[in-house]
Amino acid sequence: MKATLTARDVTKVYQTGEVEVHALRGADLDLYAGELVVILGPSGSGKSTLLNIIGGLDSATSGDVRFRDHYLTGADEAELTRFRRDHVGFVFQFYNLIPSLTAEENVALVTEIAERPLDPAEALSIVGLNERLHHFPAQLSGGEQQRVAIARAIAKQPEILLCDEPTGALDSETGILVLEAIDQVNRELGTTTAVITHNTVIGSMADRVLHVADGVIARIDQNDVRRPPAELAW
Q1: What is the predicted pLDDT for the residue at 144?
Q2: I need a surface site. Which of 140, 174, 197, 226 has the fewest CB within 10 A?
């Protein structure tokens, strides 16, 4: 099976004064259509740097990143912007919702620029918020706000959904609801999904689990058959 997105021998070096910080040291990654991949690793392991590079938010120092038959390596900012706009949805630790807009209106901001958007109400329904359409962020819990952020990310129907520590600002019970929403999106829409985290329990929901340490993918746990929905516990 041909990968939707491929990264090969990717390095990232940050220069801090006279000190070089090696965030990635030859990382390889394949993401296949419709799968859910969990990328585990401690803080500073390079997992967020990897997500930023494959999502077109940052550029690698060396190595190749390819989406289908298009190389992201060497792409200019306009090309990366089009890639992010047309093909990638992002979910971050913090929700970044606009306080003066309702949940439905926050999601609609994305659908206005998308080529084949979901109806905002449909996107919110997928993450279990069909009764919160007209609520403002201040009227929603942290978990509900994060689910609005997920709905916003999927409303343009991206091929790839990248989630960076999506439960990092939440308590364990609320975090489980958010993870279940991500799993639901993956199953209903078939969106290729990568979840970056340091919580090992999240691996129970994945097709594959990648372990990142010191800037490289150290070990891969790959399953031939999709895991059934797991009952998550922390």
Answers
A1: 95
A2: 226
Q: What angle do CA 114, 115, 117 make, to 5 degrees?
A: 60
Q: What's the domain range around 159?
A: 32-56+77-222
How many CB atoms within 10 Å of residue 175? 23
| Cα dihedral 199, 200, 205, 208 in deg (nearest 10) | 120
Task: Examine residue 2 and state whether it is found in any structural domain, yes or no.
Answer: no
> Is residue 179 domain-resident?
yes
pTM: 0.89
Residue 20: Cβ-neighbour burial (10 angstroms; 0-12, 13-18, 19+): exposed
- In CATH, what number is assigned to the domain containing residue 113? 3.40.50.300
On whether residue 24 sits in a domain, the answer given is no
Q: What burial class does residue 191 get, using C-beta atoms within 10 Å of its C-beta: 0-12 exposed, 13-18 middle, 19+ buried?
A: buried
Give kind and range of the element (H or E) at residue 6: strand 5-16
Neighbouring residues of 124: CB distance < 8 A, sequence distance ≥ 6: 103, 104, 107, 130, 132, 133, 147, 148, 151
For 88-127, the pLDDT digits (tens) are 999 998 999 999 999 999 999 998 887 888 999 999 999 9
Instruction: Report the candidate in 30, 115, 27 with the shortest Cα–Cα distance to residue 68.
Output: 30
In contact, 182 and 166? CB cutoff 8 Å: yes
